[in-house]
Amino acid sequence: MPATLRSLRIQNLALVESLEWEVAAGFSVVTGETGAGKSVILGALKLVLGERADKSLIRTGADQCSVEALFALEEVAEIDRVLGDQGIEPCEEGQLLLKRIFSVSGGNRQFINGSQTTLGVLKQIGDGLVDLHGPHDHQSLLSREQQLVLVDAFGDSRERLRRYQASFQEVSRLREEREKVLQQTADQNLDLWRHQLRELEAADLKPGEVQNLQTRYHVAANSRRLMEISGSILQQLSEVEQSVLSQMTDIARQLRELNRLDQSTDELLRAHEAATIELEELERGIVKYQTRLEINPEELQLMEERLNLLESLQRKHQRDETGLIELIADLKARLELLDHREEMLAELGVQLARELRQLTELGGQLTQGRVRAAKRLAKDIREHLKDLGFNQAAFEIQVEPLSEPRCTGFETVEYLFAPNPGEPLKPLKAIASSGEISRVMLAVKTALAQEDLVGLLVFDEIDANVGGEIAHSIGTKMRSLGGNRQVLAITHMPQVAAAASRHFYVSKAVANGRTRTSLTEVVGDNRVEELARMLGGKTKSALEHAKALLGASG
């Protein structure tokens, strides 16, 4: 089974104060008197799968209500990938935990594996876990995409589809590459590209040149003032009568006299010597600096012209220095592409033609398989519909060619149904009666029992307004589905209830002035009594009939 519901916990939802339902694989039914709260259980499941919440459902007197569902999965790789994309914790030991909380104040929260998420993500995950059939719209088989998936599964076309999709992707890639070549080699841009490349290559751009030039130009432009300042510093250091270095010489003489009289001043003498060395180094550095400042007017003019050229190119192309260098490489690549344009287009044309032939062949094989599978599947479904009371109903699977190939093939499909003779075939989604659509779904599910990818099927009173013999057929088919799927059914028909592997009874009771709904499993004599109640009363004949139903189903 792809997925099964292990447990459903409900707190403060409508008449339910607290309920925990441990669910097993196979076919289980829920019965009970009208108004006992069977719909609450179905409603709780819908809520935890992402249906919109109404705060009026919160139990009177409670601040909030919560629903929690634990699913067991056979394979978790795909769902873990989806969860990972949303930043949600992966499934542990094949278990998926969904939780929904909504409060009187209107605040709603939803969680997957303990991670808070959005309602949209919760619904996305829930749609792949459960098919609900009844007066609601949570039905995957109404989707034409899902209908096509099931036809392919029935016809064992998954491998053909995989090969077709690989070819389709290659055709798309080749077309995009060809379009790129055509766009990048437009004739109206050719002269412009060549002119731009000549201009940029003539500029002989070098990384970091602009900043270096700006620094040098700023120094050169202020060289006269810099010479004045550095010259003044030299004068104060060594050239005037009372220069710093001459004063340092006098200080040295006095320190030597001080050291002769007090040898503990050795450190002071060494400090003076170090300071003198630093000042002499400063003097040499300024002299060297002045030498670098000797820039002639011609060199200054050349730097100015170079800067003007580089800044002009930056403004013209709206790129910085690095961007201009990248543009050169880009223009070279475009022009090189142009030089080989005809060769590339010819080669792409050959590849595309070859891949299109393969796509046509694979698509044709896929179409043939789908046409055959659609006929066989429709025939199987019609046989199941007869067992469910549609003796003269029409059911077809229409294969419709597409105007353009898609990644799913050359066609789409539509499931068409007419319950009565003389009525036109209509798409499943156009069927108004929830009872009719639910029985059609049961027929489809039975025919596709091995191929359907949804693991939990929930049927809400699909046996409404049918006779006992049809109800017996419904129960038989649900029991058959329960062999490789988990099936939950809410029913008023004892024939359906008797076919289930497990039977749960919903009841309500009043205690301390409050009504509470509870759910219990009925087994043995209790189950016989519940079936008798459903048959009309716990009379001797009803009890015998109930035992007979269980015996026939067992």
Describe this entry's structure for a reader.
The protein is α/β, with parallel strands linked by helices and about 550 residues long. Helix 6 crosses helix 12 and helix 14 packs across helix 15. Helix content is about 55%, strand content about 20%. The strands form 3 sheets. A 6-stranded antiparallel beta sheet has the order 2-1-4-5-6-7. Strands 8-12-13-3-14-15 form a 6-stranded mixed beta sheet, with helices on both faces. The mean pLDDT is about 85. The protein has 18 helices and 15 strands. The two termini are about 25 Å apart. Strand 5 and strand 6 form a beta hairpin. Among the domains are: about 180 residues, Rossmann fold, CATH 3.40.50.300; about 150 residues, no CATH class.
Which second-level CATH architecture of one domain applies? Answer: 3-Layer(aba) Sandwich
- Terminal CA distance reads 23 Å
Text of the CATH class of one domain: Alpha Beta
Low-confidence segments: none
Concise synopsis of the structure shown:
This protein has 554 residues and is an alpha/beta fold. It contains 18 helices and 15 strands. Among the domains are: 1-129 and 454-466 and 483-521, P-loop containing nucleotide triphosphate hydrolases (Rossmann fold, 3-Layer(aba) Sandwich); 187-339, no CATH class.
Q: What are the defining features of this structure?
A:
19% strand; single chain; 554 residues; six-stranded mixed β-sheet; 15 strands; Rossmann fold; alpha/beta
